[in-house]
Amino acid sequence: MNKDLIKGEDDEIEIQIKGHKRDEENNKKYKFPLSCNFIHPKIDQEDTQIQFKILFPDFAFLIFKIKSEKKIVCSGCLPAKFIRRGYRVLPLYNKKMYHDNYSFLMVKITKKKEQVKYDI
Question: How many domains does the chain have?
């Protein structure tokens, strides 16, 4: 990631679920301030944990957007169905879907499988 892209006080990461309407309605959008070490963005808050309850994992995507001065600088996406536990590397892409080999997010994933009952 170009060090000049992440530079202001308004730099942030936005994390949300996209997919089935119920998953989008039941999960809030998270925003955290960022700092940059000239290559990779870093969340300024320690022990940042977020939770999503996904009812339809086949249709859900975890979306990461890096913003600077309210504009999307780069983004990444993980299909919820294929997310595994542990540390994962998420490649980041710019608006033209170009991947810079040195731009990524390192995330730690934990999952709980809950049984969901539906009334029909």
Answer: 1
pLDDT in tens, 92-104: 998 888 887 778 8
Sheet order of strands, 12-18 included: 41-43, 30-36, 12-18, 61-68, 71-79, 86-93, 99-109
Please, are residues 63 and 80 in contact by the beta-carbon 8 Å criterion? no
**88 within 8 A of 80, measured Cβ to Cβ:** no
Banded pLDDT at 44 (limits 50, 70, 90):
low
Range of the domain at 86: 12-109
pTM given for the model: 0.77
CATH number at residue 79: 2.60.40.150
